[in-house]
Structure formats: structure tokens, C-alpha cells
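Audit log entry. Action: structure prediction of a protein-small molecule complex. Ligand: magnesium ion. The ligand was supplied as SMILES and no pocket hint was given, so placement is left entirely to the predictor. Protonation state taken as written. Sequence taken verbatim from the request; no trimming, no tag removal. Recorded inputs:
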Amino acid sequence: MEEKLQPSKHRERDVQFIKGTRAGVFQEVYDWIDNPNGRNLMWLSGSPGSGKSAIAVTLAKKLLERGRLASSFSFQCSRITDPTLFWRTIAYDLALCNTDIRRDIINLVNSPANAFVNDIDFQFQELIMNMLKKHSFTHPLIIVVDALDECDSPNRLLKTLQDWTQRSLLCKLFLTSRPEQDIERSLSVIDKQHTLRIQLGTGARVTSETNNDIRRLVERGMSDISQQYPDSLQPDWPGLEAIEAIVKHAAGLFIWVTTALKYIEGSEEESGCGLTDRLEQVISGQLKAGDLYGLYLSILDQSFNQYSSPLFQKVVGTVLFSKAPVSFRDICYLSGQARPDPEVEKVLVKLRSVLLKGQDGTYSIHHKSFADFFDYGGMPGEIPDRHDETKSSAYSGMSTPCNIIPSFQCIQPKYFTCQE
Ligand SMILES: Nc1ncnc2c1ncn2[C@@H]1O[C@H](COP(=O)(O)OP(=O)(O)OP(=O)(O)O)[C@@H](O)[C@H]1O
Ligand SMILES: [Mg+2]
């Protein structure tokens, strides 16, 4: 069956999630799950870095513990973008949950019908609908789908999702995505009676509950940092006022906090200034309050005098462009260095707040929004020159997206918290 269905092997990576956060969201989700007459599709939307994947992964884990998870699928994980992989993978997971479904799917894929297994409508009708109509579960199961916006052509799937909402099934689907136009338009076509939507408010729409959760993340991060300096920092460092300032700057973006914390925690070698100065930059709003791309830009600006250098471009391009985490040796090689090069390591050290170094020593981006920031679409090394004479005047203000775009040509910020 696996050979014929070829389900996705890439599953959601582990995410950081502070226990007890997002209580309101989970309550809404559980009420929806437990309502026997409820709608069968719930859509969670929010800006990049607002915490959708963290919720999706945590929900999937909790549902698995309760024996209610049918499948957990992420388009974001390992950059799965092929829409034909989706229902195939869900069908495979359903077959793992139920032996009767497994038997029927095996029969189907071993018949001439297998010729259509790549057709989305066929997958939906034969592998999903017919199976769910014919077989039942003790308790309704839930499919968790993360980052639909990452799919190449979500429209091809949205048609089947619209169909899904019209059916009465012993299975519900929890979907997350950024509020992209195509998805928004398509899901709003569905009668409001059929879809439930939760929006993670950011910017001006941030809720006090989200701020409380973000405060917990900031407090935990600061406590971790202060423990590294037990002789010089008080346990309550940096104090309530500083913590409140960071919560306010984050404006509901969890990724803003995790990136800012990594920056504060970093070293003088990375940023060219000490811990107190780095903290001051963050709380004073120098590191671009509530504006994620501005935050990235400020961090790069602070850490690199010259991030127009060809080596910087090659190193960043290599990490951004690699489908899988990449080793130091490979980064050196792909950046054109014959052997491990300390200069490459220096660039990587300075990128610490935006890159993730795995336990096996490989590098990947900490969050997809960093790749979006560059909006890379070409080959590595195409990051433009911020010192380009023709663009440098626009760079000086650097406080609005409009200023960022011309100074860093391939940065095309799509989301700013104020738009939410
Ligand atoms: N409740 C939480 N507790 C602790 N950390 C969190 C929480 N929610 C999010 N984070 C952290 O914030 C960062 C951004 O979250 P996440 O990746 O879930 O955002 P997202 O909305 O899925 O973004 P994107 O639209 O780019 O996929 C991650 O590093 C994640 O670990
Ligand atoms: Mg996500």
C-alpha cells in the first residue's frame, strides 16, 4: 500500500510550546471537536510567526494521546508543496487507524483504479469519502493540517475542502494557514454554517490573552539568560518594565520574541555589543517593534558591517536554498571554499539568532519567515547589495516597509502586523 500511495514521509517537526499557553484557542477547538452536530472544518489563520504551527503540532500530540488523531500533515515541513500528496497521505494514515479501511485501500490500489491515484478528485472521492462513508470509528477522528498556504496550488485542494464541509462525516478537519487571498476567498465561499474560523490577532488586534502567553515566553527566556550569569544578574532580571516593553513590541508575534531572545542571548562577537546594550536595543524599540522583517533587518544590520559581501550572500543563500539542514562542511563547499573556513563560521555565528544549529551540527533557518524576508526565488548569492549606491538613500530611514523594499530589493514583505 505504501509503495502505491507514496504518502509523505515528512511529518511535523517538534516545536517549542509553553504548557498552558493558548488556553482559549484550545478550549474553542475542543468544544468544536466534542460537538456532535458541529461543523467538520475549523480554520485557524494568522500572520507569519503568530504561532499557528505551534498550536497545530501541540493539538496533534494531544489528540494522539486521546486516540483521536487521524492524521497530522504539514505543507511547511521540508517544504512539501505538491497538492497531490495531501489526500494520499491522509488516506494512508486512515488506513493505519482502521484495518477495514486498510483492506479496502489495498484492494483499490491493487486494481486498475490505481492509475488515477495521482488525481486529486479521485483521491478525495475514492480514498477518503468512500472510506469514511463505509467505515466508522468509535469516536470521531480529527485530521490536523498545517500551513495550507505553503501548498503550490491550494486552489486544487480547496475545491475538495469545500466539498468536505458539505458532508456529514465521523471525521473533522483542523486547518491552519496564513490569511492568503486565495484561501480566504475560497473558504469564505463556504457557507458560514459550515466553517469555523479562529483568527490569531496580532498588531492592533492582539488580545490580552495572547499578550499574557507572550509574557510567559519572555519571562522564561529571560530567566534562562539570567541563569547563565548568576553572579552578575538578579534572578528577576531584566525587571517588569523591560518585560512589558518586549511584550508590547512583539504585538502578538511569537517569532518576534524568540528571535529577539536569541539576539539578546547572543554574544558580542555576533552583534558587536554587550548583553546590556543588546537588551536596551530590544526594549527601546531599536530592533523594530512588532515588525518582523524590520527585526530581521535590524539584526543583520547590527551584526554585519557588510552583508553585501559575496561570502555572506553565499552562506545565507546556501542555508536558505537547501531543502534539508546542511552541515558546516557542505556550506563551506557550496560557498566555494575548498576546506572548512573560519570566515564562513564567523558569518554563521553572527546569524545565530535567525539560524538553527541542530544537535548534529547542521544548519537550517530558525523560522520560515526568515526565508520569506529574503523572498528568495533565484539561486544562492542573489541577495542584493544594500550598499548599492542607487539604493543607499532609501536605506537610511529604514523604519517602514516602503523603505526596506528598495534598499533590499528581494525583500518583499507580505505581512506586517498592522495589516492583520
Ligand atoms: N505557545 C507557544 N509557546 C512557546 N513558543 C511558541 C508558542 N507559539 C509559538 N511559539 C514559537 O514562536 C515561533 C513561531 O511560531 P510558529 O512557527 O508556530 O508560527 P506560524 O504562525 O506557524 O508561522 P508561519 O506562518 O510562518 O508558519 C516558533 O519558534 C515557536 O516555537
Ligand atoms: Mg507555521
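Audit: result stored. The longest strand covers residues 171-177. The radius of gyration is 23 Å.
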